[in-house]
Amino acid sequence: MNFRHILRKVDAGGACALGLMWAVAASAHVFPRTQVPAAGASVSPPSEVRINFDGPLEPAFSSLTVTDASGKQVNVAKAAVDAQHQETMAVALPPLQSGHYTVHWVAVASDGHRTHGDYGFDIK
């Protein structure tokens, strides 16, 4: 076996290892797939906010809160991850007035990786 042949094997093995590491890293975080109400939507007062993520959540560390235009939290109930569909988290809302609301979410994947974000919606 010559040196050039060894280098080709190392390069192929390194490329495979790098690809595998990237695939694991990419799948380690969860992000929203769908949001109800949707980001930027103008809706009638919803009874809850529900976000479906692209992977299972760790219920003990994931959260979802809703604030009004002044930054005051409006949900009294604590968000919960659906036991049957662990990629879904929802929080019940009290009756809300017209205005702008912001959803703040923290999603911890079942492997412990954390993502977070927020989006807004309006009530007519």
From TrEMBL:
Main location: other
One Pfam family linked to the record: CopC
GO molecular function, one term: copper ion binding
GO process terms (BP): copper ion transport; response to copper ion
Signal peptide: 1-28
Localization per record: Cell envelope
Gene Ontology CC: cell envelope; periplasmic space; plasma membrane
Key words of the record: Copper, Metal-binding, Signal
Keyword Signal: yes
Domain CopC: 33-123
PANTHER family in the record: INNER MEMBRANE PROTEIN YEBZ
Name of the protein this chain belongs to: Copper resistance protein CopC
Organism: Caballeronia hypogeia
